[in-house]
Amino acid sequence: MAFPKPMRALALASALLLFYLLFQIFRPPPSIDRPGKRLTGMTKETDPNREETHEPEGKLWRADDYAADNPNSPRINATILSLVRNQEIDGMVQSMRDLEKTWNSKFNYPWTFFNNVPFTEEFKKRTSAETKAKCYYHTIPLEHWAVPAWINFDLFEESAKILMEQDIQYGNLASYHQMCRWNSGLFYKHPALEHVRYYWRVEPKVHFFCDVDYDVFRYMEDNNKTYGFTINLYDAPQSMPTLWPETQRFVKAHPEYVKSDDVNARQWLEDAEQRPEHNKKASGYSTCHFWSNFEIADMNFWRSKAYEDYFNHLDRAGGFFYERWGDAPVHSIALGLFEDASKIHWYIPPALFSSLFLGSYQEDETGFILTMAQVSRYRLPTYTILQLSQRSEQMQRL
Q1: Which listed residue, 16, 95, 264, 380, has the most CB atoms within 10 A of its CB?
Q2: Which residues are catalytic?
Q3: How is residue 48 annotated by DSSP?
Q4: pLDDT, average across residues 216-234
Q5: Of 295, 332, 313, 319, whose CA–CA distance to 171 is shortest?
Q6: Which H or E run contains 259?
Q7: Is 200 strand, coil or helix?
Q8: Residues 6 or more apart from 371 whose CB is under 8 A from it?
Q9: DSSP for residue 240
Q10: What pLDDT shows up at residue 383?
């Protein structure tokens, strides 16, 4: 018996729908490779994103006895740190919610918030509701945030116009320059951090996708690590044409602060092969830097005489305002010159902890713009700083 035409059409549509659903369920997982031209000749040894998942070697402190109300917990002298404005409360709550779910609900390290104005009661109420750990709210002293007296504001405004003509983001915002200066050399001087050693910097509107089951601060302390990062990026060379010359002047005056070339990362800082135009425009600096939106660090390094003298030299030179010296290149240069590279730990891109952006890369002469967030669950061992620079260049070419 023949079925009516409408029933045949419905049966065909149902079969196609069933086939589509089965295909979606059983198809191979999508590749995380970025669109665009692929590099050839890349092997497992040269492409760390292809390595197997694993945690760092050595003793790892698990979430035992870390209850928020346990005064004898294994927690060390560390905090999660955020510079955030009251109006960024939604983004901050989202970041807290992610990090608490993936890590801090197990270890209960305190949150320390900084603002250049007092926090609102709403901000305090909503953020403290996201964690069992203690939350601290502090206002930045005016002398740490204000534009220094030696800065010529007329010259700053003229410089800001030039930066904007060169499409340097935030170049005309005095508050952005103030933030870069504070993050570079003043945050760790706040009285609230006087007795704190380690911090994990967390920004509003970041995501934390992967569960982390060990105490990252303990890992830093036990393995004598100074700085932990996730990825290298290239900065806009037009934003810092005199940063490297000023660094060279400082190094010439204080050669005793510079680690020997067999242990430092000078080659990474001065690399001219990956991005020769960047090196040229930045007067000899590669512009490659640790992405400081994510950093886990030992504040004793920033408190050292070498770094303090270096920051003060840069501060008096005025480049935080007359150019757009960021805390990321300043931190990176100091670490590359004044610290043993073995004490710098790679917290594994594309995202053991924070949201890194791997999708559609649009590249221009200032670096690259990150346009689509994706996640990879690969965890990788520490690589040399030069390898990381090369890997960063490879990723940006894709």
Answers
A1: 95
A2: 295
A3: G
A4: 93
A5: 319
A6: none
A7: strand
A8: 357, 359, 360, 361, 362
A9: -
A10: 33
- Predicted pLDDT of residue 387: 44
Q: What's the pLDDT at 26?
A: 60
Dihedral in degrees, nearest 10, Cα atoms 289, 296, 292, 348: 60
Residue that the structure tokens 């807290």 belong to: 96
Tell me the sheet residues that pair with 111.
80, 135
Summarize pLDDT for 106-127 with one digit per residue, the tens: 999 999 999 999 999 999 999 9
Residue 327 Cα distances to 160, 178, 364, angstroms: 18, 11, 22
Q: What is the pLDDT of residue 207?
A: 84
CB 346 within 8 A of CB 383: yes
Task: Identify the burial level of 149 via C-beta atoms within 10 angstroms of its C-beta, where 0-12 means exposed, 13-18 middle and 19 or more buried.
Answer: exposed
Query: What is the C-alpha to C-alpha distance for residues 335 and 314, in angstroms, rounded to an integer?
Result: 15
Q: Where does the pLDDT of residue 5 fall: very low under 50, low under 70, confident under 90, or very high at 90 and above?
A: low
Structure tokens at 31: 């590749």
Q: How far apart are CA 68 and CA 66, in angstroms?
A: 6
CA distance 209 to 277: 36
Q: Is the dihedral of CA 290, 294, 295, 296 positive or negative?
A: negative
Residues 32 and 122: their CA atoms lie apart, in Å, by: 40
**Sequential DSSP letters for 59-109:** ----SSS--TT-TT-S--SEEEEEE--GGGHHHHHHHHHHHIIIIIHHH-P
Residues 299-314 pLDDT 10s: 999 999 999 999 999 9
The SS3 of residue 150 is: coil
Kind of pairing between the strands at 78-83 and 111-115: parallel
* Exposure on the CB side of residue 365, measured as CA atoms within 13 A: 11
Of the candidates 201, 191, 187, the residue with the CA atom closest to the CA atom of residue 95: 201
Q: CB of 272 within 8 A of CB of 279?
A: yes
- Nearest CA to 112 out of 135, 89, 129 is that of 135
Gap between the Cα atoms of 175 and 11, Å rounded: 64
Task: HSE, CB side, 13 Å, CA atoms: give it for residue 203.
Answer: 14
Reading the block at residue 327, the tokens are 């805390």
Q: How many other C-beta atoms can be found within 10 angstroms of the C-beta atom of residue 126?
A: 15
CA–CA distance, 312 with 306 (Å, rounded to integer):
10
Q: Are 372 and 360 in contact (CB under 8 A)?
A: yes
